[in-house]
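the two lines:
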Amino acid sequence: MTWADIKKKLSWLSYLATEAYNAPYRGAVARAKRDEDDLFMLLIFSEMMGVPNPATYYTLELQPIMLERFHEWHKRAGMEHSPLDGFRCC
Amino acid sequence: MDRIFDRRIVFVGGKGGVGKTTSAGALALMAAESGRSTLIVSTDPAHSLGDVFDKRIGNQETSLAPNLSGLEIDPEAEAEQHIETVKMSMKSLVAPKMYREIDRQLDLARHSPGTMEAALLERMADLMADARSRFDLLIFDTAPSGHTIRLLSLPEVLGAWSDGMLGHRDRSRKLGDLLEVFGRDHSREDEFGMIGGSKEKPDDSRDGRIRDILLTRRRKFHRARELLTDPAVTAFLLVINAERLPILESMKTLDLLKKFNIPVTGMIVNRLLPPDADGEFLRERRLQENEYRAEIDQTFAELRRVYLHLLPHDVHGVETLREIGRKIVQQLGDVSGAV
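prediction for all of em together
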């Protein structure tokens, strides 16, 4: 085993240790971000769910951008198809 | 800074039927004839600006007199255009079989309450921002009070809304940045190529687009609000008749405008009985009118007031408007330029 090989092994171990520490946090932060994004998306589609929105006219232009996200969301929420009558993405 | 024509934006408002359009038209004509390039904009969905000037106007700037252009905003056409744009960008993202769904959904949005107002406000904000480079003076002939108040309060409401939405985006972005910290170590990635490749890459283009749209909105609303509340830029003129209901409504309007910090500068008391009109009936009316006039002078003491008499004929055409305009300008002590 050369010195370079040992160095490589050590750095691999160091990586594993870092990951073991980081991974749970990464998961928590990713979930928090996803929740934040879901909330934002629901605000954009709020009017369709019967929540009055002072700015429907302006949320409208954000809807196309959120379309994909909306699809991910209802899949994740366990609904195979869009739960909104007037709004079907798939 | 006391002269009304030195402002950049003048709103003329009041209860329905008190003579807003005539007053606004007369003022606009005077401003134009004093050498200021002027644009008069009607925001009332039931336009009558064209009738007063005896010209067809419509949804584009039309020349009414030398130095003077007119515009009747058509909120329906504005909303239509906005919604068409949204439809197009949505259709570029979904399968063609969804097109009908999108059309149906967005056609509903067009008729949802608030859409027309938002479209109207949008156009007004654009005009306020951009007409300043093309015109010296922008005069808004507004719809009856309630509608206008709501319209003028919208920039505040929508400003707060876009602030809130941007707050959500910021939080999401911060979490995204944090994720990056916990994510893979890029120096190692170079060494091993594929280690820790599980990290989701944030969709920068989408986040960026959302931010851009929201920021543009916020900038527009805040700018409109800034202009509206700056007494050096904006003046609001209330038109009133010496009758009970217009007085009551104007009191409410004045309170609300103050609440939103919109500077109200003057009042036009319109349609007073001419002093030479005679007969028993008119004598009675005049007695009543004098009472209301006293009430107006007391209630609105803080505003500069202009008194105009009822004319024996309808107002249409530049001649009559000029006649009225001269009276207004004289009383405002605003005789500047070639009047």
